[in-house]
Automatic annotation (TrEMBL):
Gene3D superfamilies referenced in this protein's UniProt entry, alphabetically: 3.30.70.100, Rhodanese-like domain (3.40.250.10)
Function: Catalyzes oxygen-dependent 5-hydroxyuridine (ho5U) modification at position 34 in tRNAs.
HAMAP family documented for this protein: TrhO (MF_00469)
Annotated keywords: Oxidoreductase, tRNA processing
Protein name, UniProt field: tRNA uridine(34) hydroxylase
Catalysed reaction equations from the record: uridine(34) in tRNA + AH2 + O2 = 5-hydroxyuridine(34) in tRNA + A + H2O
Family of the protein in this entry: Belongs to the TrhO family.
Pfam families membership: Rhodanese, UPF0176_N
NCBIfam families: PRK00142.1-4 (NF001136)
Keyword Glycosyltransferase attached: no
Domain of life: Bacteria
Listed EC numbers: 1.14.-.-
Domain Rhodanese: 122-216
Protein's organism: Fulvimarina uroteuthidis
Length: 297
């Protein structure tokens, strides 16, 4: 059996968040869905998996509530459950930036479709920026993209203020996993006086879905925030795994390192591993392994 995975977001003013949270949680549980949905005064953002009938019903319901289909909706698949449970949470922002001037419900950059993206970023006058965190960019990025080397999206503001200049960088193109971060980043940059700001509609996931590998400017795979860890062209499951202890994505070479122990440690966290922590993680890993074996019969 495979599961439909639907990722979506829309910047749209929302009110009555507590009632909406209860409504969405009940709907998703009844439809047999798992994942996470965030709602905030600025909109909705989520990734949910389950039977295709359930995910389609959810999208239809959200379109009635907040016009979701005017935002971004992307479908992919997973061979096993990518999420353990269903959560609907209220947040101050659907993507945290802590910059009130960044309000995509009022102003955002220019969308560029996946099919038009290659032509845009081939322009030498366009500065191409990856708005994701450094643990994501290590898995893959676009050819020629600038990596701000940030550890959280809130740090993107500092990068813009210290490394970019509206007078010099007149054309800027940005991208992220599904489109939400670069859309909000575009709103922030316009507020800072940048002249022309583009962002990839649907993000990397839409690009990998629509653009054939032989025409692609993408190098590597795309990190995703579920148990698949990464996907490639056609949104096929990728080759990366993740460290259970620290969450860092791991290449095949990193899983062969002496410091790697499944469920316990990797080269990124071995220096912080205490004996007590290692003992607890080994016990947890054993429990999870036995639970999966029992579930598979």
């Amino acid at each position: 059996m495979s599961y439909d995975v639907v990722a979506f977001y829309r910047f749209v003013p929302l009110a009555g968040l507590e009632a909406l949270r209860e409504q969405l949680l009940a709907f998703c549980r009844k439809a047999g869905l798992r994942g996470t949905i965030l709602i905030a005064p600025e909109g909705i953002n989520g990734t949910v998996a389950g039977p295709s009938a359930g995910t389609l019903a959810l999208v239809e319901s959200l379109d009635g509530i907040c016009g979701l289909l005017k935002g971004e909706v992307k479908h992919s698949s997973a061979a096993t459950w990518p999420f353990a449970r269903m959560k609907v949470r209220i947040r101050p922002e659907i993507i945290t930036m802590r910059a009130p001037e960044a309000d995509p419900t009022r102003r955002a950059g220019q969308y560029v479709s996946a099919r038009e993206w290659n032509d845009l970023v081939s322009d030498p006058d366009v500065l191409l920026i990856d708005t994701r965190n450094r643990y994501e960019t290590k898995v893959g990025t676009f050819e020629g993209a600038v990596d701000p080397r940030i550890d959280s999206f809130t740090e993107f503001k500092d990068y813009v203020e210290t490394a970019l200049d509206p007078a010099r960088h007149r054309k800027v193109a940005m991208f992220c996993t599904g489109g939400i971060r670069c859309e909000k980043a575009s709103s922030f940059m316009l507020a800072q006086g940048f002249e022309t700001v583009y962002h990839l509609k649907g993000g990397i996931l839409k690009y990998l879905e629509e653009v054939e590998p032989d025409a692609s400017r993408w190098n590597g795979e795309c990190y995703v925030f579920d148990e698949r860890v990464a996907v490639g062209h056609g949104l096929a499951p990728g080759s990366w795994t993740a460290c259970f202890a620290c969450g860092q994505p791991l290449s095949g070479d990193e899983t062969q390192a002496d410091s790697f122990e499944a469920g316990v440690s990797c080269p990124h966290c071995i220096d912080r591993l205490t004996d007590e922590r290692a003992r607890d993680l080994r016990a947890r890993h054993l429990q999870m392994t036995e639970a999966k074996r029992d579930a598979s019969g």
